[in-house]
Amino acid sequence: QVQLVESGGGLVQAGGSLRLSCAASGRTFDSYLIGMGWFRQAPGKEREFVASTNWNGGTTSYADSVKGRFTMSRDNRKKAVYLQMDNLKPEDTAVYYCAAALGPGLKSRPTEYPYWGQGTQVTVSS
User: Fold this and answer.
1) Shortest CA distance to 97 belongs to which of 58, 42, 55?
2) Which residue of 4, 32, 56, 123 has the fewest C-beta atoms within 10 A of its own C-beta?
3) Residues 20-56 pLDDT 10s
4) Which tens digit of pLDDT belongs to each residue from 96-112?
5) Cα three-residue angle 119-43-109, rounded to 5 degrees
6) What is the 3 state secondary structure string of 1-60?
C-alpha cells in the first residue's frame, strides 16, 4: 500500500505562487519503483492531468496548460514530491491531488494511478 498526504494549498491572487507538497509512506512505496503524478479537478469538471515524474525525478511531463509555469520535483530520501506553481491564473483553481503508480515510467491517465491522496484546495482570485 501507498499512503499520500498533500499540503500547501490555499488562496492566492492571480500572478502569485504556491508550492504543494505530497508526503508518501507505505511498504509498497519502499519496495517498488514508483511513478508520481499531480492531477486537479475543478467543480463540474473531470479530473485532469497536471504533471508527472518518473521514479527518480529524472524525467517530467506537463500538461500544456501549465508548461512554463509549474515545476514538479521529487525527493526520494524524504519520500516526497512537490509542485511549484508560479504565475497562477484563476483557471488553475481546483482541488489538486497527488497520485502514485507502480512502475518507473511516466503516466498521464488517472486510471494508471491506483493510489491517491485526499487532495488540497487551490483557489486563485482575479
Assistant:
1) 42
2) 56
3) 999 999 877 776 788 999 999 999 999 999 999 998 8
4) 999 999 888 889 999 99
5) 60
6) CCEEEEECCEEEECCCCEEEEEEEECHHHHHCCEEEEEEEECCCCCCEEEEEECCCCCCE
**C-alpha distances out from residue 108 to 13, 24, 38, 100, 124, Å:** 28, 19, 9, 11, 24
**Is it the case that residue 122 has pLDDT exceeding 90?**
yes
Spell out a b/e string for 101-119, using b for 16 or more CB atoms within 10 Å of the CB, else e.
bbeeebbbebebbebbbeb
Q: Looking at residue 17, what is its pLDDT?
A: 98
Name the one residue in this structure whose C-alpha cell is 502569485: 16
